[in-house]
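#onboarding

Welcome to the new folks! Below is a worked example of what a typical request in this channel looks like: someone posts a single protein sequence, and someone else replies with the predicted structure as tokens. Don't worry about understanding the tokens yet, we'll cover that in week two.

Example request:
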Amino acid sequence: MAWLGRAALILALAAFGGPTMAGVCKGRPPPIGGTIEGAVLHVVDGQTLCVALGPTPDRWVPLMVAPSLTPLPRDRDRLMAATFSKRLSCHVTAVRGPASLAECAVDGRALDSVMSDPAMITEAKAWR
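Example response:
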């Protein structure tokens, strides 16, 4: 993944007043019921992120993390710590505007479980 360094630079620019999700995540999500796998290269807010299917933003797919039965706070720092530069596997359950709603897993573990882990909560504080 030689393109990861270039993508990180683009993301750094986006984090400091650069493009929003619409300007960064330009890929088309799979249909409802489809699955998408790739590295997270942009976290928009506490619920929305971009999964990269290639090195350029036209291959970054916007996804909204589906709420679980026990909703977690919409914490961008926590979502960033749990997903940034990690490989996600997401199953699309619905479409909401420019992003698809999806249930995701990090390294085979449900994202909700990862984000509620006390170690992840501690790590998220370091992103501030």
